[in-house]
Design goal:
This protein is about 30% helix and about 25% strand. By secondary structure, it is an alpha/beta fold. α1 packs across α8 (about 310-329) and α3 runs parallel beside α5. It is globular and about 60 Å long. The mean pLDDT is about 95. It binds NADP nicotinamide-adenine-dinucleotide phosphate.
Length: about 325
């Protein structure tokens, strides 16, 4: 089996490398791509040194599966070249997520939308992914009508440059103040919360907030789902947290809801300890806590979910999809 990892030197790419070692066939041959600045760098996969290649048309051969995590522009420019040479492409960027014929796959929810005709597969946004994993077992039982998610997005969701900026800002200690302008974001992020994640769009919502709206509808297959999102960026390295208020058609029961979540593969309910981003970091599961009934209506469930944005939010889901293709193609 031949696997290409595009964006192999990035935060997501490096996690993909670790997970391939664990989940993909032992005799797999890897080809690693990144920008020209990384060409020639050596990275280890399964203890073997691989030289990173520049992502350029001349360097692209035929692969069975290619995992893309190098930004939307690279996906737009190169994914089709890879698929035309016979490769499945699992894309972590937002480039193709809302295209009708491209499956938007959360493994555990809708991997059955993958077929031999769907060579290009999109991996959802990291915040949406954690939330839909918690919502799916609840929706199956109570029929989801609307959600009000409030997200606390970690810095590693913005890539390696943002993490370096966070570390730099943290090193300033008390010297960091609200006038600091040298950081990755418009406002300082260490010891801080910026009440906007992503870029504002014309309707006053950010692109990150609109991903909640559009992607959760597509993944859960509820086109009429009402979504009222608010996304903040917080001074946390890894682990996106979400408070969600979800309204269902049917009356809900908290203990039953906890049981449903706990028995859904890939999600874990924490009763005795509050799950935080630090608990989620390095954990492949979505952690859920603080399940309560709405104060006004027992068709409402209010809860907290947190997950590692680099793992189930990106690399792990992509590798789960790759494994699914290996087993089913
Ligand atoms: N971070 C997350 O939590 C997360 C979650 C879901 C999806 N994603 C998506 O995954 C992708 C990667 O995110 P990341 O956090 O891993 O970012 P990152 O740490 O900044 O890594 C970016 C990767 O893209 C490569 N790259 C950049 N420009 C390139 C070019 N012109 N040609 C070839 N390769 C190029 C980089 O190579 P060099 O090292 O050579 O520059 C690096 O390997 C993005 O599309 C992002 O939206 C990220």
């Amino acid at each position: 089996m031949n696997i290409a990892i595009v964006g192999a030197t990035g935060l997501v790419g490096r996690e993909i490398i670790n997970l391939c070692e664990e989940f993909l066939p032992k005799d797999t041959i890897y080809t690693l791509f990144a920008s020209s600045k990384s060409a020639g760098k050596k990275l280890k996969v399964k203890g073997k040194d691989y030289e990173v290649k520049e992502l350029a048309e001349d360097n692209i051969e035929s692969y069975d599966i290619s995992l893309f995590s190098a930004g939307g522009e690279r996906s737009k420019n190169f994914a089709e070249i890879f698929t035309s040479k016979g490769s499945y492409v699992i894309d972590n960027s937002s480039a193709f997520r809302m295209e009708k014929e491209v499956p938007l796959v959360v493994f555990g929810i809708n991997e059955n939308t993958i077929s031999q005709e769907t060579k290009l597969i999109s991996n959802p946004n990291c915040t949406t992914m954690g939330l839909v994993m918690a919502l799916k077992p609840l929706h199956d039982k109570y029929n989801l009508l609307n959600i009000v998610p409030v997200a606390y997005q970690a810095v590693s969701g913005s890539g390696s440059e943002a993490v370096s900026s966070l570390i730099e800002e943290e090193s300033l200690g008390e010297k960091l103040d609200s006038d600091y302008e040298k950081g990755f974001y418009d406002r300082p992020i260490a010891r801080n919360v910026i009440p906007l994640a992503g870029n504002l769009t014309e309707n006053g919502y950010s692109d990150e907030e609109m991903k909640f709206v559009n992607e959760s509808r597509k993944i859960l297959n509820i086109p009429e789902l009402i979504v009222e999102p608010s996304n903040a960026r917080v001074g946390v390295k890894t682990g996106h947290g979400i408070f969600c208020s979800a309204t269902f058609e049917e009356a809900t029961d908290v203990q039953e809801a906890i049981g449903l979540i706990d028995s859904f593969d890939g999600v874990e309910y924490w009763k005795d300890k509050l799950p935080t981003p630090l608990d989620a970091e390095g954990n492949k599961k979505v952690l859920v806590g603080r399940m309560r009934n709405g104060l006004s209506d027992n068709r409402i469930l209010n809860f907290w979910a947190v997950s590692d944005n680099l793992l189930k939010g990106a690399a792990f889901n992509a590798v789960q999809i790759a494994r699914y293709i290996v087993d089913n193609d």
